[in-house]
């Protein structure tokens, strides 16, 4: 079994190298010269009014790439008339947001360069621009991705209650390594979590009736109040939530690693990153060296954006990011 697993990882890795070679910096320079400028200008406008869009796009991008590859399959709407549930409406994606921003960008690009710029490239470019606006690293990404033709509700994404080893296994199946895992979880520097995902840590950890001993007691009290004194809600998106980085919540920096090093990790996986021997040395390095995190984050984001992308004549360029061009 170990040999088979290693073979799959190597095949995935070499496939990514082959495909990424077909992507190109400035892919739209001739076909739609202002494409990247348009994406950036619309993201800038949204970020100015709502800086939380950076965290939203990072999660949207990861949840797209982590399922079938970076093919914009997460953007497809379900079709109730055909009883077809899309990836977007799977349980792990119910709190993903940012779709309307992608729609706005796509509508603008379609008015200038119809059926030229893919939705998958829009997601990748918009995320990169949002990261830079939030103080994170600037990096150049190749484009030329095409949009997938499949989107279903069967998704396999890591759960925040899983161990470091379990989540590392997932990352390896999509061609990413331990350093990528620790780095990309650093996206929590601008993310939020709903009480549902951490409430047991502050009230009844593993059925003990007590909070998680690895969490800072002051943070336990703060989160316990947040989750137990809120009014009833009707949807998950309305449920109380908190920043995963309690310090610089809208800035892409290394403070997330400093927080989890001080027992202030919100999610179980956040805290375990700082405790598990597989990841603790990397966490300590990033906590002490912001530039090391920035360089690693840019590298891992580029690498993630190359996961199982469609190029050439594969897939399609959608006219509407929420629907396949020919749903039949």
Automatic annotation (TrEMBL):
Residues annotated as binding heme b: 188
Coiled coil: none
Keyword Transferase: no
Catalysed transformations (reactions): 2 a phenolic donor + H2O2 = 2 a phenolic radical donor + 2 H2O
Disulfide bonds: 32-113, 65-70, 119-321, 195-227
EC number: 1.11.1.7
Binding site for Ca(2+) 2: 189, 245, 248, 253
Annotated InterPro entries: Haem_peroxidase, Haem_peroxidase_sf, Peroxidase_pln, Peroxidases_AS, Peroxidases_heam-ligand_BS, Secretory_peroxidase
Positions bearing the site annotation: Transition state stabilizer: 59
Gene Ontology BP term (one): hydrogen peroxide catabolic process
Residues annotated as the enzyme's active site: 63
PROSITE patterns: PEROXIDASE_1, PEROXIDASE_2, PEROXIDASE_4
GO molecular function, one term: peroxidase activity
Cofactor: how bound: Binds 1 heme b (iron(II)-protoporphyrin IX) group per subunit. Binds 2 calcium ions per subunit.
Origin: domain of life: Eukaryota
Residues annotated to bind Ca(2+) 1: 64, 67, 69, 71, 73, 87
Pfam families: peroxidase
Compartments, record wording: Secreted
Range of residues in the leader sequence: 1-21
Key words, A-Z: Calcium, Disulfide bond, Glycoprotein, Heme, Hydrogen peroxide, Iron, Metal-binding, Oxidoreductase, Peroxidase, Secreted, Signal
GO CC terms of this entry: extracellular region; plant-type cell wall
UniProt domain Plant heme peroxidase family profile: residue ranges: 22-325
Family of this protein: Belongs to the peroxidase family. Ascorbate peroxidase subfamily.
Record's function text: Removal of H(2)O(2), oxidation of toxic reductants, biosynthesis and degradation of lignin, suberization, auxin catabolism, response to environmental stresses such as wounding, pathogen attack and oxidative stress. These functions might be dependent on each isozyme/isoform in each plant tissue.
Protein name: Peroxidase
Organism encoding this protein: Solanum lycopersicum
Taxonomic lineage from the root: Eukaryota, Viridiplantae, Streptophyta, Embryophyta, Tracheophyta
